[in-house]
Each structure stands twice: as C-alpha cells, then as structure tokens.
Amino acid sequence: MRNLRVGVRLSGRALAVLIAAGATLAVSTAMSEAAGYPLPVKTTTGLNYDMPDPGVLLSGSTFYGFFTGGGLRESTSGTAAGPWPAPVNELRMSTLPSWVQASKGIWAPDMIKTTSGEYVVYFSAALPGTAGHPAGNDAKPASGARCVGTAESKSPTGPFSADRKPLVCLENYGAADDMKADPGNRVRGEGVVDASPAIVTIAGHPELFLLYKTQGNPADGQIATIRMVRLNDADGTSVLGESHQLLRSSVGSFADTIEAPSLIQDGSYFTLFVAHGNFDSCGYSTQWFRSQHIWAWTNGGASTLLSAGNTGLCGPGGADVSVSRVPGQDRIFFHGWVKESKGVISTVPLPSNVAPDEGVNAARVMYAAVLTFTRSGAPVLGPYQGQS
After folding, report:
1. Quick one: which of 238, 215, 241, 218 has its CA closest to 228?
2. If DSSP codes are grouped into helix, strand and coil, which group holds residue 20?
3. How far is it, in rounded angstroms, from Cα 3 to Cα 23?
4. Which tens digits make up the pLDDT trace of 313-360?
5. Residue 308 three-state SS
6. 134 and 141 in contact (C-beta within 8 Å)?
7. Which CA distances in Å does 238 have to 28, 71, 115, 120, 365?
8. For 123-141, how does the pLDDT look when each residue is reduced to its tens digit (9 = 90+)?
C-alpha cells in the first residue's frame, strides 16, 4: 500500500502536503561519508525530501519520478543517482473529477509514454462518501476504497489534466476495468491502488499492461491481490480485454500483504517485483517472481531482493524498476524509513524497534541502485546510486 489506509490517522506531513496541494517538505541533513548503510539519492539543494512510493520512467535522457502526496508530485534527473530537485505538483487540480476526494491525497503516481507519444500518469485516489462502510458490496464501496485514475499531457513534465472517468474502479463508476468478469480473490467493496504501467514486447510487438493491487483490511483477515489488464499502447487509457488476478496474499495479515507491483522484461522472461508486509514498519520488503508467460505466476514462489536484513535499511519497499541508458543494466528505485526530528530528515535508517510516525519521527526517502540479471534470470542488486 502506498500510504496510510483510510481509517488510519493521517500524519502531520500528509495533512500539510494535502493543504499545500503538492508542496514538499525539504529539510537539511549532514551527509555521512562513512555510513554503514546505503544513502538516499542526491538532491539539487543537498536537502533530503520525503519521496514515498517512487514511480520512475526513463524517457530520452531523463528520469521522471512521481511520489505520493497532494496532486502529481514530480521530480526529474539526468541520472538515477541525482541530483533530484524537490518534487512539485504538475497536476491541474481543477481537472480532478467528482469521483476523487482530493483531500485524501493522490497515491503512487506512475507514468508511461504511449506509442503515440502521449504521456499518461496513473494514480490512486479516494472515493468520496465511503466513511463507515464495511467491505462486501461493490455497489457501496468500503471505507477508504480508492480507484485508479489517469491524467495526460503532451509533455513529461505536464501540466497534466485528469480524465473524467476512472480507469479501474468498482461498478457504477463508469470505469473501463470494473474487475467483474474475473474477480478472483478480490474483496468486494474494497478499492484498488498502486497502479504500475509496463510496456513489454510480445511476439515482436509492444504491448502495454497495467498492474495494480486490490485493497483489503488485514485487521479483518482480508487478502490482497495483484491484478493486471492490457491497455491500448497508443492511448494508454483504453482497455483491451478483461483484467485477471496474477497473485494473492495467502493469510490476510500485514505480515503477508502484497502490493506495489512493478513488471519488467528480461529477454524471454518477465520479472514481477512486489512489496511484502506492512509498509508502516521496518519489516516491509521487496520480493520478486519470475515467469515466461506474462499471465501465469505462482503464489508462494517469491524470493526476497530487499529487506532490512540484507540492506541495513528500514522497510525497503515500494520498488519501481526502470530501464537505463547503460546496456545490460536497469535501475531500481524504492523508499525506506529514516529518522526525522523537528522537521529535519536524516539519512539514518529508523531503528526496527521504533514505530514510524510520518512527519514526526520518520520520513520515507528514495534510494536508487543498479539492477542486473544472472543467466538464470535472477535479479541482482548492484551498486547504490546516490549520496556518498
């Protein structure tokens, strides 16, 4: 999940971001040259920023990154390492349609360049009027239910105008994908988050897919699923066929939750990265699955790529993978919790025995690293790209 689920208290940072509609909180920190843990990306000011849920696209010679907050918070850089400027809102807020409750923020935006040259950003937004609703009925969305919307621009830096209807949503909202034909293990009445686009080559032709998570309340034992739908690669918003379930959590607890999918192609294989566990803890991690068929994935077949144990970071998740300009290499971007005190965001990972309170004692900064694949197809984390 890309941010606090509705029903959980919004942090002071989240409230400030929503009020400012895209303003970011930048704070200074001393750089550590001898840190025993990876450091976040460099910034143009030398300040650290709250950059949760990175969705990053390389287009031309520039990386375009989007982050959870108010509006479509975007930052750009010529290299994965940075320097990255403070994210700013590039969404025309006046274009948000009536199905969006803007006061609850825009989660996990992610952009694609269509084959026609248009830039489309996919985002998750809350449905209004759901407070107090239990899950179980698609016609009456549960508290905190979200849907996936789209916004478009001729330029990768916007401004972006939101489309009137959601792309993925429950029935009665006019979505192109209402998930009814093959619901799988989706919890009825719960919404969808973490939209992630990917263009891959199948039978020599580019095809655009959108992956996303169906929400569920772990406290009630509800499971989460990862679904996918094929889109028209020329416009990025027309659905081709029905969406289908790829993966599901098996227990229905925070320890088992899966979310934040990111798909990349490596030769004849596909690798699917997901976040695992409770995002609001150091136990959040990044796992991966591998398949030769884009629709066929095996539950229980995950391997861990990023965790507190093998990185020294707190909750390294929300990963997004992008190609790079270096042949044979990709770049992986993810966030992790670091200490924050009196508005000062450090580079020091939050200790595992401290509960993150976003905007009070913790913030989520962005990390970047080289990603390669072995001959057998296993992803390998290479050097970190960022501060030194």
Report:
1. 241
2. helix
3. 17
4. 999 999 999 999 999 999 999 999 999 999 899 999 999 999 999 999
5. helix
6. no
7. 44, 23, 13, 12, 34
8. 999 999 999 999 999 999 9
